[in-house]
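Question (not urgent): is this output format expected?
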Amino acid sequence: MTPQLHLHVLASGSKGNAAVVEGPEGSVLVDCGISRRALMQRAAELGVDMGRVAAVLLTHDHSDHVKGLSVFCTHFDGGLFATAGTVGARKYLTELPFTLVEHSDAFEVAGMRVQAFPTFHDVPDSMGFRFETADDALGYCTDTGHLGPEAMGALTGVRILALESNHDERMLANGPYPSYLKARVAGPTGHLSNAQAADALRTLTTEETETVVAMHLSEKNNRPSVCVRTLAEAVGAVAANDAFTEARTPDGHLTICAAAQDWPMTVW
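Got this back:
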């Protein structure tokens, strides 16, 4: 694949989520769960031109994905895309000029073809996305308890794969969460574990895949090194640094890394 799409993760975790997918004709903001000030500051740190953002796409309505949107929209006149279930879940979202899409729709934004697919979270109508140009593809999927066939199909063979790897199952079981919350996180409409993400990578990664970004890591029930090690073992990658926060396959073709709550990152 010829690199035409770039991923800028501005925040990823339970306190707030936002990412920019940059294409050759413009960019898309996926979720807006941090303040506009933080969003713009982190974008500036990465050299991301927010003036190129043509649209905002929402994965779902949880506050860590949407709480910054109303203020952001006071300075933004591009398109807003979400499912009816997402928009209807919060009154302030119903007051914004959304274009409603189904969670299996395909549509064009900023010169990119966007293929939505359903995710499985404890909200109405959540979704993930595959972004494509003629020569490149990027997959984005967080906040799902498991990966259905539509997700597996959409995420297979992308050059950049941003995939939830929320928790280590043992750390969650032995961690501080109450029993009901442990059951929610680990359930079929919760969050993908490191082991689930690793198992999916055995199918999703192909010769086209160059970078896997582990997303939405739990601060209480995961560590970057634990997550990356688990994912690396699934695809035959080895540590690329002493901390094991990055891994590469021996041929150097595939890199695995982890996004963070407070440290923005770019994948070219």
